[in-house]
C-alpha cells in the first residue's frame, strides 16, 4: 500500500489532530470551534464519489436561517423535511470540479448524531480522476474563523485539503 504524505499533509494532519481533540474536549459545551469535516471516497467500481460532511447542527441551522430567511430545526431529523433547503445550500457552497469539469451531485440525505448533522452526497459517472478542485465555503457566511477540511481518498492515496474564508478553494493533481 503506497501512502502519499508530504510536508503539507503532515502539517494538516497535526492540525486535524489538534482540532479533533478540541472537539472532544468541548463536545459537552457550546463549541468555540467552527469546523466542518468531509470524507470523500472515489469508488472505482461504481465510478462515483461518495461524500459525507459533518457539521455542528446549530451552526448549520444558523447558516440556513441566514440564507433562507427562516428558522430551521434539523435535529431530530424525523423525515428529512429540510432536504430541499439543504440541497440548495450545498449546491451553492460545496463544489467539486473533476478533470476541469464541474461535477453534479445527488443529495442522498442527512441524519443527526449528538451535536452533529451528517449530510451525504454522491457524484456519479466519474470514471477517471486526473484533477480535483474543491470549493468549500460551508458556513463562511456565519463565521469568519470557519475552517473546512476535506479528506479525499482515491485508490491507496489520501489527501487532506483545507479551505477557509481567505482561501475557499483548493486542488489535487493526480499523475
Give start-end ranges of low-pLDDT stretches. none
Mean of pLDDT: 86
| Total of domains | 1
Number of helices: 3
Question: Looking across the biggest beta sheet, what order are the strands in?
Answer: 5-6-2-1-8-9
* Gap between N and C termini: 17 Å
Q: How many strand units?
A: 10
Keywords for this structure?
175 residues, globular, 10 strands, alpha+beta
Layout of secondary structure:
Layout lengths: L6 H19 L9 E9 L4 E9 H12 L14 H11 E5 L2 E2 L2 E9 L2 E8 L7 E6 L10 E8 L2 E7 L5 E5 L2
Write a structural description.
The protein is 24% helix and 39% strand. The chain is of the alpha+beta class and 175 residues long. It has one domain. The longest helix has 19 residues, at 7-25. The chain is globular. The two termini are 17 Å apart. 22% of the residues are buried. The model has no long low-confidence stretch (mean pLDDT 86).
Short description:
The protein is of the alpha+beta class and 175 residues long. Helices cover 24% and strands 39% of the residues.
Amino acid at each position: 500500500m503506497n501512502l502519499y504524505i508530504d510536508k503539507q499533509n503532515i502539517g494538516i494532519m497535526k492540525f486535524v489532530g489538534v482540532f479533533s481533540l478540541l472537539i472532544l474536549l468541548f463536545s459537552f459545551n457550546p463549541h468555540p470551534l467552527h469546523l466542518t469535516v468531509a470524507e470523500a471516497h472515489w469508488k472505482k467500481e461504481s465510478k462515483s464519489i461518495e461524500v459525507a460532511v459533518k457539521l455542528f447542527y446549530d451552526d448549520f441551522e444558523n447558516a440556513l436561517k441566514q440564507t433562507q430567511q427562516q428558522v430551521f430545526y434539523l435535529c431530530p431529523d424525523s423525515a428529512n423535511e429540510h432536504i430541499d433547503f439543504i440541497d440548495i445550500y450545498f449546491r451553492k457552497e460545496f463544489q467539486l470540479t473533476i478533470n476541469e469539469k464541474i461535477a453534479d451531485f445527488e443529495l442522498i440525505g442527512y441524519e443527526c448524531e449528538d451535536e452533529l448533522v451528517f449530510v451525504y452526497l454522491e457524484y456519479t459517472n466519474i470514471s477517471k480522476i486526473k484533477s480535483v478542485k474543491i470549493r468549500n465555503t460551508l458556513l463562511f457566511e456565519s463565521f469568519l474563523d470557519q475552517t473546512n477540511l476535506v479528506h479525499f481518498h482515491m485508490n491507496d492515496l489520501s489527501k487532506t485539503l483545507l479551505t477557509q474564508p481567505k482561501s475557499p478553494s483548493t486542488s489535487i493533481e493526480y499523475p
